[in-house]
């Protein structure tokens, strides 16, 4: 366990302790935002004025205007990207006050920032399915299967990563205490 003693060096921002913001920390949320914008631009002229967005069985029973639907699909993508940026930024601001060798943040920040791409992937696939149905009247695969696969794979990757990081952090702390 690391004991942090309040002192002058820990209450001021130390430029040497600062972990700089890198775009790799939020590359996946930004990429899915851009992909969603490209997908919306590509399908916009192919879509009818009213888009089916809710289905009872195989028949649509609720409709929304094309612009409103695209707005409802793009705004959450933007908000997830903004949330990823804010999360990373807050973590990096707090990291200034930790001793540089006592934190695994340099390995955790990319995962924490890019983790918000998981719901973005599901939204992107949902948007693709709605666009394909309304432009070409095809529904290639059930969305719940894709959502389940994405969440399971994301959970496995996160579990492996966090277990690995915790083991490395504990072994590093054990070496420090032995010295």
Strand and helix layout:
Blueprint: H1 8-11, H2 27-44, E1 50-56, E2 59-65, H3 66-95, H4 105-114, H5 117-136, H6 143-178
Antiparallel strand pairs: 1-2
Helix pairs in contact: 2-3, 2-5, 3-4, 3-5, 5-6
Descriptive notes:
The protein is 66% helix and 8% strand. It has one domain (20-178). It is mainly alpha-helical. The chain is elongated, with a radius of gyration of 22 Å.
Task: List the main descriptive attributes of the protein structure presented here.
179 residues, 8% strand, mainly alpha, single chain
Largest sheet: 2 strands, antiparallel
Query: Could you give the order of strands across the largest sheet?
Result: 1-2
How much of the sequence lies in strands comes to: 5-15%
Number of helices: 6
Distance between the amino and carboxyl termini: 14 Å
In sequence order, what are the helices and strands, one letter per element? HHEEHHHH
Overall 3D form? elongated
Estimate nothing, just give the exact number of structural domains: 1
Q: List the quaternary state of the chains.
A: single chain
Percent range of helical residues: 55-70%
In short:
With 179 residues, this protein is mainly α. The chain has helices spanning 8-11, 27-44, 66-95, 105-114, 117-136, 143-178; strands at residues 50-56, 59-65.
């Amino acid at each position: 366990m690391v004991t942090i003693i309040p002192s002058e060096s820990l209450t001021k921002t130390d430029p040497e302790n600062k972990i700089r913001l890198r775009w790799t920390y939020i590359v996946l949320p930004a990429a899915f935002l851009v992909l969603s914008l490209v997908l919306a631009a590509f399908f916009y002229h192919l879509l009818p004025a009213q888009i089916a967005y809710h289905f009872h069985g195989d028949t649509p029973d609720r409709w929304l205007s094309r612009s409103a639907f695209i707005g409802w699909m793009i705004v959450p993508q933007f908000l997830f990207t903004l949330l990823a940026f804010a999360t990373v930024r807050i973590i990096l601001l707090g990291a200034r006050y930790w001793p540089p060798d006592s934190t695994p943040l340099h390995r955790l920040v990319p995962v924490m920032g890019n983790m918000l791409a998981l719901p973005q992937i599901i939204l992107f696939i949902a948007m693709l399915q709605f666009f394909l149905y309304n432009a070409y009247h095809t529904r290639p695969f059930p969305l719940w299967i894709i959502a389940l696969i994405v969440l399971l794979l994301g959970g496995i990757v996160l579990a492996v990563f966090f277990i690995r990081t915790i083991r490395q952090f504990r072994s590093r702390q054990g070496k420090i205490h032995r010295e």
